[in-house]
Write the structure tokens for this entry.
Amino acid sequence: MEQTPTIAELAGIPDRPESQDLGAERQRRKIAVIGGYRILSRFGLDEGISGHITARDPERPHTFWTAPFGRHFSKVQPDELLHVDSDGTILSGRGPLNRAAFVIHSKVHEARPDVIGAVHAHGLQGKAFSSLHRLLSPITQDACAFYDDHSIYEEYHGVALDEEEGRRIAQALGANKAVILTNHGHLTVGTSVESAVWWYVSMERSMQAELAARAAGDPIALHDKIAAQTYEAVGTEKVGWFAYSTIIQKIAAEEPELFGV
Ligand SMILES: [Zn+2]
């Protein structure tokens, strides 16, 4: 019997290339982390010392890769990336580890074995929206990527420096692709580094759209059924990866030696 095509197939979205060679897959994830930092920087999401992207290691899944603390998102290089284990020990790389990055991301990776990439930064819109203590409303097509797929962490206990805070954030994230950290910002995850990066950027922009709409009037949300249908078209991991692969083309053209163009 002929199978009904998925929305991704109907939309012509290609499959994400994956490698069975663990070394090649590790390198691919590290380059995706670097690309993610470049994308955050391009979108103005590099603010001071805040923000971190992590990628789970394919061979040692209880370890992950991230940029050294204090390295600018536009400058970090693959050989500097820190390889960190679940105790916070730096296995390789150059530079110090951001304690908050470790505390939050290690607990998220631990709680969600399906997660390969995780992203958190201090985007202006995410910060403003997080102070409202509310979920994103499906008022636009793009916001539907988060419909029934994000949560709120209602507490704020100060800068996340103890592991218990990381555990609470991971618990609040649950099985979702994103969590709004009240009075702080947002955090996104994906089954690829690429999708996690795109969800972060897309959520920031959806928050901006909702803040603008609420400032201007009383936005009308899509009906639940339509929002759920739209989620299937714009909220899948495949779409997240594909959106990243589109943005990275521009950055790759400027750094071809790094991104292999
Ligand atoms: Zn933060």
